[in-house]
Design a protein that fits this description.
alpha+beta; D-Maltodextrin-Binding Protein, domain 2; Dipeptide-binding Protein, domain 3; 2 domains; ten-stranded mixed β-sheet; 13 helices; 18 strands; 25% helix; globular
């Protein structure tokens, strides 16, 4: 088995010879220089080991996968030049650009192959993302040889990947950190490490990056928040509250989390679910100024999302009142960690409609047990989605789900999506979402976002709620 050493960059060691960053007046900031705050000193600057948001921000700038999401939400090739898919949607042939590592040495298909095989035998839960590849799980358990895994390299610029089953989001998944190549302390992204001090981590433009002419920001200075205001930078990104500098623009990025009020379809018939859906939708519109509202089943983090389907009154029969619907008091369960003011507002809103709701906070274990047993009427649940097509988010409600929901038309559309060409995929998934709204298993409620601030001269910053593109400055420009 090929053995490889992965170097973990730690501040604890490097900071023994720390060079303190001096205060820099605004007028002396170099052209093309960007300051970004971090709360804590990073421990791991490896794509597969990074845990904190600060670490993920930095590795997003140091490493690059085969694909990425562009500023318009479309999937584009990064290290990959092109790809093709077999007729059965199981085999992907990926052609590399012929790029290099940060030392100028060739980055090859074998680097990707060995990195993925290493992850399968050395990582913890993170390696499960690779289990979509044929025999990957078996290899991680020592049941097959590496030659049996569906990762072939016929030459240095070609990777052929065979999956266990079709996956419409596979190309998007290839942008995730676990699929990134690693080789010692080398990197392959737009930036390389220039210095690490007690004040932060400092990056500079990678002279060997394959598309270096497109990178307009030359230096990235990840500085501890305590030092940030001393420096008073002109061009900056500041995460979290406290970035209200002069002229700063407040923005939000999608964390990938979406909450739903889920119906127990065995206890609530279609007509009752339609009634509840309509009332919750009306409440969401009222609260749009207080919460980030999720309008459809698919959140904005999904690539290729067409739109969301809004049901008005054309969905079919609807009760005129809760009294006519004959609702018994409804038991709504939720995990204590997911408690939100929205739930009490929901309870009050339904009481005005004549529907009593009992809110039942539970531990994570208790919630899972009640969910599995079907011991609930309503469940408030938060799902965490990383980037992918809408398929991943819709598939939560395919037959076999814990909510006793069955919809033959919906299942048929999902199956069609698994075996569809890319150009047809999003139309099929849109139709699948329509099925969910007309015969609802749940109502998508809240979309979770986090604030950050940017200087007014900074444009096209891409923030996504996951490691690989937590912070992507490939498209960013500093306006003169």
């Amino acid at each position: 088995m090929l053995k490889r050493v992965y170097y973990i960059i730690t501040l604890a060691v490097i900071c023994l010879c720390a060079i303190f960053l001096p205060k820099i007046p605004v007028k002396t900031q170099a052209k093309g220089e960007l300051y970004i705050n971090i709360e804590n000193k990073p421990i791991y600057l490896s794509p597969v080991l990074a845990k904190t948001q600060d670490e993920k921000k930095i590795i997003s700038c140091l490493y690059e996968g085969l694909f990425k999401i562009n500023i318009d939400g479309k999937t584009i090739g990064s290290q990959a030049k092109s790809y093709s898919v077999s007729d059965d949607f199981l085999t992907y042939k990926i052609n590399l650009r012929g790029t290099t590592w940060s030392d100028g040495s060739d980055l090859t298909s074998y680097d990707f192959q060995s990195s993925w095989l290493y992850a399968l035998t050395n990582l913890g839960k993170e390696k499960e993302e690779l289990f979509i590849i044929k025999n990957a799980k078996e290899y991680s358990e020592g049941l097959v040889n590496k030659e049996d895994v569906g990762i072939l390299c016929p030459d240095s610029l070609t990777i052929i990947v065979t999956l266990n089953e079709p996956d419409p989001s596979f190309i998007e998944k290839l942008s995730r950190p676990v699929f990134m190549p690693q080789k010692g302390n080398l990197t392959n992204g737009p930036y390389v490490i220039k210095n690490i001090t007690s004040d932060g981590v400092f990056l500079e433009k990678n002279p060997y990056y394959w598309d270096k002419s497109s990178i307009s920001i030359y230096s990235l200075n990840f500085v501890l928040s305590g030092k940030f205001k001393e420096i008073n930078p002109q061009t900056f990104i500041f995460d979290g509250e406290g970035g209200e500098f002069d002229g700063a623009q407040k923005r939000y990025y999608d964390t990938g989390e979406v909450s739903y009020v889920i119906f127990n379809s065995q206890k609530l018939n279609k007509e009752k679910r339609l009634y509840l859906q309509n009332k919750i939708q009306n409440l969401k519109e009222i609260l749009a100024d207080e919460f980030f509202i999720q309008n459809g089943f698919v959140n904005d983090l999904a690539t290729g999302k067409k739109a969301f389907y809004r049901i008005e009154h054309e969905a079919g029969f609807e009760y005129e009142s809760a009294k006519e619907a004959q609702f018994n008091p409804l038991n709504l369960i939720y995990e204590k960690d997911n408690e939100t003011p929205f739930l009490n507002i929901l309870k009050t809103h339904f009481e005005k409609e004549g529907i009593l709701i009992n809110l039942t906070p539970l531990t994570q274990k208790e919630f899972a047990q009640r969910e599995e047993a079907g011991d609930f009427d309503l469940a408030y649940k938060v799902f965490a989605f990383s980037v992918g097509t809408p398929y991943e988010q819709l598939a939560v409600f395919k037959s076999g789900n814990p909510y006793q929901y069955k919809n033959k038309n919906f299942d048929t559309l999902l199956n069609q999506a698994l075996h569809s060409k890319r150009e047809d995929l999003f139309d099929i998934l849109y139709d699948a979402e329509v099925e969910l709204v007309k015969n609802p298993p749940a109502v998508a409620v809240l979309n979770f976002k986090k604030p950050y601030y940017t200087s007014p001269d900074l444009k096209n910053v891409l923030r996504l709620g996951y490691g690989a593109q937590n912070l992507d400055l490939y498209f960013a420009k500093i306006k003169n």
